[in-house]
Write a structure and sequence with these properties.
The protein has 562 residues and is an alpha/beta fold. It is built from 14 helices and 25 strands. Bound molecules: adenosine-5'-triphosphate and magnesium ion (MG). Adenosine-5'-triphosphate (ATP) binds next to helix 3, strand 8 and helix 10.
Length: 562
């Protein structure tokens, strides 16, 4: 069997190569308990790619009775902020995972890491280099050309120790010197060509304040942090494969308390979506979106605000499986999972996005009726609500055509349709405004069709949603389309040029049935015939705001084909 079909096999069984490794390690007694970690850098909000890593790390720990740590890799105080730390914690919790007491920070280990740096220096395995950054970079060579040693590479351990200690107490300005590992300048793996371990950075840190003015690089902090925490399986994305030899070199050359092993999996990529914190930060900072939690963003916060249930994200991650080869997942797969969950859980309501007034001429003025309507067609436990019918209602502008083509089954002059849960109505007259625009329809109803049932077996070809003019509540509805107009945004180097012009469409004058008036922010409903809509936190008393989470059908895939 080839590697990839073996991977597919294990995915089929609800398993994957990581879970197979963990199970084998436990069965062979190599570990008593599996310990994983999710290690975000708090320099942005989490996105759905991170969700894949979170579900994997926390999921493996749960399934095998181990534990998963949340560890902030906070080694770069220039870009890291408390806002991001708080958002990351909230997002992991919301996704349904719990680190219990195991919340850690790379900065918790700054003293230990410093001591280990001195350990390397004493053993002749690290040196202070004064070479200017640019020059140092050039001297590291290329894939085809070996690196060249700096003149500082042969400094004595004592001199290195003295300089490193003076770096620590702040004697030198930013960039004056670095501490480098002394490994192998000719190694084919660039990561082993004497990588930088510490740099001088006179910058306060969100957690350690001004205690430090030198900070360990990610590579020097990450593996040792795993070792300190007794992480057994250090799971990361493929781009770190080339870092594994360095990760192992540190473990081999330092008196670490445990020996984690690193495993790599393919990162999540989704069509029409950018999953890179650097680019997402750019979108926020340049104002292309309204913030990290803009519902168009692939961030966890954005998806939540959009109305996506956490369970749908977990389900999506399970469905796409885990492999070692990079691939791109169709955005339709995510929408499928969202739709499936909301179809089961979302209560049904009626709302009209672009209202067109309808007067039912033979319905008595001042009269109203209430219909009991099920909140969910398949789940009676969700109960019923009252929907009020009256002489003046609104329907969707799109549901009427004055001069319809043959296949248009909805309202048109002389045509009869069903108003959902109410009556059959027939369009008798079209009222127009000064510019010839349709402003109102005059209809009649059939009193024998109460509840929307056919009185005599005659058929109508469409059932429309509607709201009562006097009872409906005003709403702003925000429709979202993909943020990018090409499936591989940024592929030609200019992400901003690939932004879609119509990713947000605000409908300020929608009308919702009164049962929605008190809807709490975060709740998602199915608006009949339209899709799933979540109450936005911008909602205020008297001003409902809804986000379209996703349409009812996969119109996106169809549009692409068309
Ligand atoms: P980005 O690449 O988005 O700028 P990052 O990967 O550097 O960010 P981290 O905070 O370091 O972000 O990521 C934390 C963890 O999430 C890492 O272990 C990383 O491998 C994983 N991760 C990040 N992006 C993805 C992705 N698209 N798919 C799966 N895992 C991911
Ligand atoms: Mg990273």
């Amino acid at each position: 069997m080839t590697g990839s079909s073996a991977e597919e096999k294990s995915t089929e069984a609800g398993r994957d190569f990581i879970r197979d490794i963990v199970q084998a390690d436990l069965a062979a007694g190599r570990h008593k308990e599996v310990v994983t970690r999710f290690p975000p850098e708090p320099n942005g909000y989490l996105h759905i790619g991170h969700a894949k890593s979170i579900c994997l790390n926390f999921g493996v720990a749960q399934e095998f009775g181990g534990r998963c740590h949340l560890r902030f890799d906070d080694t770069n105080p220039v870009k890291e902020e408390q806002e991001f730390i708080d958002a990351i914690e909230a997002d992991v919790r919301w996704l349904g995972f719990d680190w219990g007491t195991h919340l850690y920070h790379a900065s918790d280990y700054f003293q230990q890491l410093y001591d280990w740096a001195e350990h390397l220096i004493r053993n002749g395995k690290a040196y202070v280099d004064d070479t200017p950054v640019e020059e140092m970079r050039a001297m590291r060579g290329t894939l085809t050309e070996a690196g060249r040693p700096s003149i500082y590479r042969s400094r004595s351990a004592d001199e290195n120790l003295d300089l490193f200690r003076r770096m620590r107490v702040g004697e030198f300005p930013n960039g004056a010197r670095v501490l480098r590992a002394k490994i192998d300048l000719k190694n084919g793996n660039m990561n082993l060509r004497d990588p930088v371990l510490y740099r001088i950075l006179h910058q306060a840190h969100p957690r350690t304040g001004t205690t430090w003015c030198i900070y360990p690089n990610y590579d020097f902090a990450h593996g040792q942090s795993d070792a300190i925490e007794h992480v057994t399986h250090s799971i990361c994305t493929l781009e770190f494969e080339d870092h594994r030899p360095l990760y192992d070199w540190f473990l081999d050359n330092l008196p670490v308390p445990s020996r984690p092993r690193q495993y790599e999996f393919a990162r999540l990529n989704i069509t029409y979506t950018v999953l890179s914190k650097r680019f997402l930060t750019g979108l926020v900072q340049q104002g292309h979106v309204r913030g990290w939690d803009d519902p168009r963003m692939p961030t966890i916060a954005g998806l939540r605000r959009r109305g996506v249930p956490a369970a749908a994200i977990r389900d999506f991650v399970a469905r796409i499986g885990l492999a070692r080869a990079n691939s791109v997942v169709d955005i339709g797969m995510l929408e499928f999972s969202i739709r499936e969950h909301l179809n089961r859980s979302a209560e049904r309501r009626m709302a009209v996005l672009r209202p067109l007034k309808v007067v039912i001429e033979n319905y008595p003025e001042g009269q109203t009726e209430q219909f009991d309507v099920a909140n969910h067609p398949d789940d009676p436990s969700l109960g019923t609500r009252k929907v009020t019918f009256a002489r003046e209602i609104y329907v969707e502008q799109d549901d009427f055509m004055e001069d319809p083509p043959k296949k248009f089954f909805r309202l048109a002059p002389g045509k009869e349709v069903r108003l959902r849960n109410a009556y059959f109505v027939t369009c008798r007259e079209v009222v127009k405004g000064q510019c010839g625009e349709v402003v109102e329809l005059r209809c009649t109803y059939d009193p024998a069709s109460r509840g929307g049932a056919s009185p005599d077996g005659r058929k109508v070809q469409a059932t429309l949603h509607w709201v009562s003019a006097a009872h409906a509540v005003p709403a702003e509805v925000r429709l979202y389309n993909p943020l990018f107009k090409r499936p591989d945004p940024g592929a030609e180097g200019d992400l901003a040029a690939d932004l879609a012009p119509d990713s947000l469409d605000v409908l300020p004058a929608a009308l919702a049935e009164p049962a929605l008036a008190q809807a709490a922010p975060g709740t998602t409903f199915q608006f009949e015939r339209l899709g799933y809509f979540a109450v936005d936190p911008d909602t205020r008393p008297g001003r409902l705001v809804f986000n379209r989470t996703v349409g009812l059908r996969d119109s996106w895939a169809k549009a692409q084909k068309g």
